[in-house]
Write a structure and sequence with these properties.
The chain is an alpha/beta fold. The protein folds into 2 domains: 121 residues, Response regulator (Rossmann fold, 3-Layer(aba) Sandwich), CATH 3.40.50; 97 residues, LytTr DNA-binding domain (OB fold (Dihydrolipoamide Acetyltransferase, E2P)), CATH 2.40.50.1020. The chain is built from 6 helices and 15 strands. The protein has a 5-stranded parallel beta sheet, sandwiched between helices. A 5-stranded antiparallel beta sheet has the order 10-9-8-12-11. A 3-stranded antiparallel beta sheet has the order 13-14-15, covered by helices on one side. Helix 3 links the parallel strand 3 and strand 4. Helix 1 crosses helix 4.
Length: 227
Amino acid sequence: MKICICDDDSSQCESLKTMILAHDKNHEVTCFHSAEEMLFECENQFLFDCIFLDIQMKKMNGIDCAKKIRSIDDKVIIIFLSAIREYVFEGYEVNAMRYLLKPLDQRKCHELLDLVEASIQKEKTYLYVNKMKICCDDILYIESYGHYCSIHAFKAIEVKKSLSELYAGLPDTFIQTHRSYIVNLDHVEAVIKDQCLLDDQTMIPISRKSLKKVNEAFMEHIRGGLL
């Protein structure tokens, strides 16, 4: 992977670089020591798989830098570095993937890099149905009825396949909530009693036998934002 570190503490940069290369010596790591330096050198294109961005930097801080990045590139993975847990919630605005808390821990760093690699791979996950290529990230939920299923993404797409056939081809961000429904946890805003609230405000039923499994999966998905 091509990885960028932006931290105004040189020792932290070197420490994190060492951890990253211990994960895989083939990672390409580029270090910058200020937000301004990185923005200038990258010239409006961020040719990295992910950017480790320190929040508490002098002059431009990491949050403001992330906003600049997002105004140019809404795909590159941003990972915040912070010694203060309270900053975690500020990252939602810029769609930060994860947080790595200081002091840095190699095991957690490697777990995070595994997640980054999985996320990059997930971006290449598609369903091929009805001579169409549907990106799994775009799917909110799938509903079955009779011998057909309706895949709800940018539009509802009807396919003659069983729910179990479709489920087998989906990444692990998907979970079956009911014998007739699969949801994408990336699009779940809340679990309310026996229903999932999706980000388009659709309510998806959860069966009694699936309720514990769905609640645990949703909470684990949320906790994944903090390492």
